Amino acid sequence: MSGHLHTALELAASRVPVLPLRAGKVPFGNCARCADNACGGRPNMKTPGPCSCHRPCHGWAAASTDLDVISSGPWRRAWGQAEAVAYHPGGAGWTVVDLDNADAIAWARENLPATQVVPTTRGEHWLYLGAMTSANAVRPGVDIKSTMSYARWLGPGTGAMTALPDAVRALAVKEPSAVRSASQAVGVPAGARGGECPHRTPAYLDRGIAMAAQRITQASSAVHATVYRTFLAVLSTHGRCGCLTEAHTARLFTAAQGKGESARHCADAWTNALMRLGL
């Protein structure tokens, strides 16, 4: 048994989804069966796990904790060619703050709570307990690796892992200007009364937006479909009133991005809901 396979099995036994990295420390590419997403496009899925071909050929989405899959067949051959072991932080319920240089480390020590630290070739990985959307270059020398991402396993590091703080979550939130304004996207049809909802109170709207955001946040599967259905429900109630504001839309988009949705997916889901309702 190779050293990489042994490490992978230990991690998987601890419910940490793993995958092998080939030369260049990148995932193994698609096999012939899965080329051009012929298998159904596993990389677009929101949860880790091998597709039906049972090969480690879908990057982070192939990461697995199945000991039988990891140690046999094409996976075992891949470990023989692997240069490193990677894991899917989001699948383990973790977030990695990847600090790429000394300046980034100094910033983290001043602005983030202490947690488990793993030394890397050029900097450090700070591991927090809790998953969030991944994001690159959130500030100079700082990347966030969690859902829909992988990180190289470099050992357990030192210190105790602490809960994911709001300071880290905030790093991945887009500026409000980057989110489409709901009032601009929807418009105010003739007859709407000065932007006020003609049939609901402001408190009802605020409560509805909070419940919609919670529905997205609590989704355990089919996240993209849940986001679309939630946007559709909000727009069907308030889309013709002119009462939605940029702040309402930003709250919904932020909840969706916190579940791994990209800004583009959010915009597409919002646009599709508008078209469905004829707005």
Care to describe what's here?
With 279 residues, the protein is α+β, with helices and mostly antiparallel strands. The protein contains 11 helices and 10 strands. The chain has helices at 3-13, 67-70, 73-81, 89-92, 102-111, 166-169, 182-186, 202-217, 223-238, 246-258, 263-277, and strands spanning 18-22, 26-27, 84-87, 94-99, 116-119, 124-129, 135-139, 142-145, 151-152, 162-163. Strands 4, 5, 6, 7, 8 and 10 form a 6-stranded mixed β-sheet that branches. The protein has a 4-stranded antiparallel β-sheet with strand order 2-1-3-9. Strand 7 and strand 8 (142-145) form a beta hairpin. Helix 8 runs antiparallel to helix 9, helix 8 packs parallel to helix 10 and helix 9 crosses helix 11. Mean pLDDT is 82; it is low at 175-196.
Please give the count of helices: 11
Q: For the CA atoms, what is the radius of gyration?
A: 21 Å
Extended strand count: 10
**Outline:** globular
The profile of the biggest β sheet is: 6 strands, mixed
Helix content range of the residues, please?
25-40%
Indicate the proportion of strand residues. Answer: 5-15%
In round numbers, the mean pLDDT is: 82
Instruction: Specify the structural class.
Output: alpha+beta
**Distance N to C terminus:** 60 Å
Please mark out the parts with pLDDT under 50 across 5 or more consecutive residues, or reply none: 175-196
Give me the strand/helix succession. Answer: HEEHHEHEHEEEEEEHHHHHH
